[in-house]
């Protein structure tokens, strides 16, 4: 399995750390199903923070386009990795991550806000502070 999922304490903050190589079609959906299982088992309600730790993954433009198209095609069946009930956060320094985040905020991709941080620590700090300001 090219990813590892971890819940941060008992907070609704879930980190999914991906390791290269990533199957851009299958792995995000498998990880999303695992995240949803944790959310359901814990009985979490929004806000829920899902952090995709991608520091070891270096996507190319083709990966980006294929991944976005595949994900958007599954919005109606509830299997899109860009779940509107989650606060979506990406971690990494690959330049295409910012392009991905900006693209997901566009109408044709569902106006899904996506935050990008260079380190996992920054992402967890953001989620923790946002949860403090907007408690469940």
Rg estimate, integer Å: 14 Å
**What is the CATH fold-level name?**
Transcription Regulator spoIIAA
Shape: globular
The total number of structural domains is 1
Q: Whole-number average pLDDT? A: 88
**Helix/strand order, N-terminal first:** EEHEHEHEH
Summarize this entry quickly.
This protein has a single domain (3-133), classed as STAS domain (Transcription Regulator spoIIAA, 2-Layer Sandwich), CATH 3.30.750.24.
Give a structural overview.
- The relative contact order is 0.18.
- This protein has a five-stranded mixed sheet, sandwiched between helices.
- It has 136 residues and is α/β, with parallel strands linked by helices.
- It is built from four helices and five strands, in the order E-E-H-E-H-E-H-E-H.
- The model has no long low-confidence stretch (mean pLDDT 88).
- Helix 2 (61-72) links the parallel strand 3 and strand 4.
- The chain has a single domain (3-133), classed as Transcription Regulator spoIIAA (2-Layer Sandwich), CATH 3.30.750.24.
- The chain has helices at residues 27-42, 61-72, 95-104, 120-133, and strands at 3-7, 13-18, 48-53, 86-91, 114-117.
């Amino acid at each position: 399995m090219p990813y590892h999922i971890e819940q941060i304490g008992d907070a609704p903050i879930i980190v999914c750390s991906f390791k290269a190589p990533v199957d851009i079609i299958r792995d995000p959906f498998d990880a999303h199903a695992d995240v949803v299982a944790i959310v359901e088992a814990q009985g979490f309600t929004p806000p829920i923070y899902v952090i995709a730790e991608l520091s070891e993954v270096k996507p190319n433009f083709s990966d980006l386009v294929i991944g976005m198209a595949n994900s958007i095609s599954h919005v109606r069946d509830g299997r899109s990795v860009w779940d509107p009930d989650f606060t979506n956060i990406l971690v990494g320094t690959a330049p295409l991550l910012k392009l991905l985040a900006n693209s997901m905020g566009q109408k044709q991709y569902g106006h899904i806000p996506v935050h990008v941080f260079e380190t996992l620590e920054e992402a967890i700090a953001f989620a923790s502070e946002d949860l403090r300001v907007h408690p469940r």
